[in-house]
Each structure stands twice: as structure tokens, then as C-alpha cells.
Inverse folding.
């Protein structure tokens, strides 16, 4: 409580994380529910290499579909924050403060939406490895692919936020002076 009262940046970060989460909630739910179900397909004892290959391809396609869906939803969300950025500039926030706020938004969002489920997936995969359902190399491949895809998402979100902050900060058209 005291930390939030002292640091208005934290309040801004949390408010923007909530707004971003509202926009991306359906995709986050799919990520949290569907990916573990897809991972469970690896736990089935499969003697056939072709079935394992098809399951891997389906898993990668699912991750890519979720990735592109998150990117598209994020692109829809970005124009809605331009007036907020212009308003914050009018209230006296500097460019570096705004960048810092949106860096915090990306870090919080990625931690909540990507890394917490990643821990769950690693636990599931490790448990499957312990029960000899999958090999250790498969655990590393699945974890690495998930991590890489969503690291790219984090970098993309960060670059898009920086571009949007720069554009909205330098252009007064986003601030409606009649309001």
C-alpha cells in the first residue's frame, strides 16, 4: 500500500496491465486451458513415431495460432492508449517516464500471462518425464519452443509500445482539447 502511494508509476503500470488484460483475456484463457490439454497428448504412450510427429506439429501450430492471435488483439488495443499517452504528457509526464511505465506493463503482463503458465508446463513436462512418457530432450524442445515464441511476443509488445509512446508523445492530434 505505502509503495503504491509513494510511486504513481506503479499505479499507472497496474492500471495499464488491467486494461491490457481485459483486452487479451480470451486469448490468455485459451493459452491457459488449451495448451496443457495439448501437452497431455505427449503423455500418452505412443509407440508410433508418426503420431508423435503429428502431435508435435499440432502443438507448434497451436502455439503459433495463439501467438498471432495475441499479436492481432494487441494491435487492436494499441490505438486506444494513444489518447491516454497524450493526456499523461499534458499532465507533465516526460517521455522517459512514459516509456518506463509501458516497460513495466510488458514485464508484468509477460510475467503473469507467460511465465507463471510456463512454470506449470515445465512441472507437467517434468512429471511426464519422470513417468517415462516423454524423453528429456522432448521436455527441453517443448519448453524451449514455448519460451522462444513468447519471448518474441514480449519483444514485439515492447517495441510496439515504444513506437506508440513516441508517436503519441510527439503528436498533439491525440489530445482533444475540447474535452
Amino acid at each position: 500500500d505505502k509503495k503504491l502511494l509513494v510511486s504513481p508509476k506503479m499505479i499507472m503500470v497496474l492500471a495499464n496491465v488491467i486494461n491490457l488484460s481485459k483486452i487479451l483475456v480470451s486469448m490468455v484463457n485459451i493459452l491457459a486451458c488449451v495448451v496443457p490439454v495439448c501437452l497431455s497428448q505427449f503423455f500418452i504412450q505412443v509407440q508410433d513415431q508418426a503420431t508423435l510427429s503429428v502431435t508435435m506439429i499440432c502443438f507448434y501450430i497451436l502455439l503459433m495460432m495463439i501467438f498471432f492471435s495475441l499479436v492481432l488483439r494487441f494491435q487492436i488495443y494499441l490505438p486506444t492508449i494513444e489518447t491516454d499517452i497524450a493526456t499523461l504528457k499534458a499532465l507533465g509526464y516526460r517521455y522517459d517516464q512514459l516509456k518506463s511505465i509501458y516497460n513495466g506493463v510488458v514485464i508484468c503482463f509477460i510475467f503473469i500471462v507467460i511465465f507463471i503458465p510456463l512454470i506449470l508446463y515445465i512441472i507437467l513436462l517434468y512429471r511426464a518425464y519422470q513417468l517415462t512418457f516423454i524423453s528429456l530432450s522432448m521436455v527441453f524442445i517443448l519448453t524451449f519452443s514455448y519460451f522462444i515464441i513468447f519471448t518474441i511476443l514480449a519483444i514485439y509488445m515492447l517495441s510496439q509500445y515504444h513506437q506508440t509512446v513516441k508517436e503519441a508523445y510527439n503528436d498533439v492530434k491525440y489530445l482533444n482539447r475540447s474535452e
Remarks:
- Helices lie at 2-6, 8-40, 49-77, 82-90, 95-130, 136-170.
- The chain has six helices and no strands.
- Residues 4 and 11 are 6 Å apart (CA to CA).
